[in-house]
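Researcher: I've been going back and forth with a colleague about how Nucleotide-binding universal stress protein, UspA family might be arranged in three dimensions. Neither of us has a model we trust, so I'd like an independent prediction. The organism is Mucilaginibacter gossypii, in case that matters for your notes. Sequence below.
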Amino acid sequence: MKTILIPVDFSDTNTNAIKYAADMGCDMPVKKIILLKSYYTSVYEQILPSPDFLLISADDIENERQKIEVQLKELMKKLKNRCHENIEIETVVSTEPIVRAIHNVVEDQHPDLMIVGGDMGHELSMIGEQIIEIAKSSPVKVLVIPPDCNYHKIEQALVPCDLEALARLGVLKGLNTSHSWLNPKLMLLYVDPKKKHIGREAEFEASVKQLVNCYECKLHYSDDKNIVRGILNFATEQQVQLIIALPGKHSFFYNLTHSSITEALSLNARHPVLILK
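Model: Here is an independent structure prediction for Nucleotide-binding universal stress protein, UspA family. You can compare it with whatever you and your colleague have in mind.
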């Protein structure tokens, strides 16, 4: 792990995600944290009046940019005080929409991980409001931090999975080499209310051991009819420090509807979710 990208909106949820990143950096060889702030103003906002009949002028935009730079400097100072002294902190201010700004930084800086605050209804947060779009479009792994979540060393991680798409587990192989902090015990959970796994347990166990042989792992089943509830209840009962979402249409995250993803993230008040790519 060399570089972490954190989109910034100065909300409490976002500030908590930054604190999480700083504390996590004490457990892993992070070299750089990039704080990205987008202050996109559309052409329409510049030429059409607001409901208060106010036009956004070039001076207004420049004043906003200067204000943002002052806020970023203050945030960078606080982050440096909390981070390991060897971690470099960089700030980027972009006039592009947030998703495009993220892609530009990823292309230029090649971060290994992006961290965002998981605000779903707790407060006004530009990043939180667009978290689903950001997570799905990101070309790099995304770690979503719930609003009240503090960093704890990751010793156990839960991987919700669909055993009809076991090949997806292969993406886990590289994590404990590319992320030296991420070498936990894995709990694989198949939420299977139709109980399709019955009679095939030995087959699934053998496949899992072959695909995830670089980890200590155990396969679990749940017959909860609500996938989100089954996952979050299991995570709480087992006191895991991380939920890992596999990529692809068979991931518990990606195969949910937009409203279900929102529900999953809003109900998840305790566990960071790492969305793989």
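Researcher: What would you highlight for our discussion?
Model: I'd start with this: The longest strand covers residues 32-38. After that, consider the following. The first helix runs from residue 12 to 24.
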